[in-house]
């Protein structure tokens, strides 16, 4: 008997795909959810559908909301995506205001309707772009809030658990774990600024982290790049 069902936030990128693979390995029946929030890299939505089919998810939903309404990010406004950026402690312009808070809240509503308190999210606090909503403190705080907010939790029918299995892993470790679980990373998409053919730019923060991760794992990234940085060559 498995542990029941779980809602998996699935962008179609490397991390969320690996989180889905881990949820499946833990015998959860997975319901995947992607978000069309006005992101410039909306080709990731096709990737999320491919990945969901590959792992035979029980259902896959695309929920539409317009985060371009307030902008404030290079992913949701007419701002340039940084390329070949040197690592710094500053939060980059690709941070989308309150994104994980918003997306987790919506996924939480779906989980309550499905009768589960299990949510999986592929946030990572080691090799990441400095986003504040990818840290363990955020995940733990959201989990506490969720258990105070849901009717099902207050009535004792569910206990909300936000699973963040990648949070302390490097990108290389994530990729190696995914390979062990049969992830086909050619199905995924991570780039913030793909070209009109859907090829990854090879120079944005997301591409740089991904390429370094594959190099760390001793593997070649199977997705198509317009240009690969030196770390991914």
Write up what this structure looks like.
- Helix 1 (14-25) links the parallel strand 1 and strand 2 (29-36).
- The mean pLDDT is 93.
- The chain has one domain (5-194): Rossmann fold (3-Layer(aba) Sandwich).
- The protein has a five-stranded parallel sheet, sandwiched between helices.
- Helix content is 34%, strand content 11%.
- By secondary structure, it is of the alpha/beta class.
- The chain has helices spanning 14-25, 44-54, 99-114, 136-149, 151-154, 171-180, 205-217; strands at residues 5-9, 29-36, 59-64, 118-120, 161-163.
Question: Which features does this protein show?
Answer:
alpha/beta, Rossmann fold, five-stranded parallel beta sheet, globular
Set out the fold topology.
Blueprint: E1 5-9, H1 14-25, E2 29-36, H2 44-54, E3 59-64, H3 99-114, E4 118-120, H4 136-149, H5 151-154, E5 161-163, H6 171-180, H7 205-217
Parallel strand pairs: 1-2, 1-4, 2-3, 4-5
